[in-house]
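Worked example 2:
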Amino acid sequence: MSGISAVGPEAENADRGLLFRGSDVEELSDLIRVRFAPHRLSVLDDHPLDGCFRRLHEGAVAIYELGYGSEVDITPEAPLDFYNIHVPLAGGGAVTVNGKTLSSPLSIAGPEQKLTMRWSHDSVNRSLIIPRQVVDQALAVRLGDQPQKPLDFAPVFDDRADPVRAWLNVVKHFAEFADSALAARSPLAIRHFEQLLVNGLLDAQPHMLSEAVAGHGCVALPSAVRRAAVFCAEHAGEPVSVAEMAQAARVGVRSLREGFRTHMDTTPLAYLRSVRLDLARRDLLAVAEGRVSQTVTDVALRWGFTHLGRFTGHYRKAYGETPSQTARSAHPVR
């Protein structure tokens, strides 16, 4: 396209990976359309567009840096079919996922989710694009099977959490390495970096399969237990029986119970409860951060806890505080 060819060899040498710099809204929009998704780009204020779009790496994981020099709205024309991660480097903005404005633009949206963004004139973002199949393949290595549904991450990164801070440092170092002359000479190192980014994301950022993948390597669990764990995550908001878990695992109920007892030191229903508790905690933290407006009762019922007293007891045992304390105590994510 014209936007790519406008950057000649001399400019490429002067600024490695530069795809666009200037004020042509249509040209920048076309470049974003090719590398992200079909979208609507609207300039909102009197600042003329002064955009800069750089490609740091395109591969199994793509990473870009993008600023507009003007306040803009960006709305993809359809739900995403990839994971889109925003790491703000300067300025500010607002990100909305499925109609809910997030408490921080440091965020991730995934397949089948609707995304809109508004960025300030001085904003610069580092954006990562990870295809769904790349995440599914990483999960298959750990769990033995690919999930039927796209992975649903908690949308906001809590950069106060040590694992998240460490993962963001990996992103920073990968951006620096991918932007270097060495990267082109070391494709194996690039592939290792990509795997580190994807697997680190699975470990650092909460998601619906966190309980299933936590601490388990590719051979740590037998296939039947892995299949049951994935089934629990994908159906945690529905009534689930041990018989249904066994059917999904393709074993008998007795074999499933023995598998969970031997390999996870728990029962199938206790494991399902731990998955639901993790999801309830995620929702309660979102309440505390102001990202959603729900009561503790709403959250408990959403994840199948119909007896609030027992829910509180299990929750306190797992996390050392009551659900109400979680909903009140978290501070907004920076």
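The chain is about 45% helix and 20% strand. The first strand starts at residue 18 and ends at 22.
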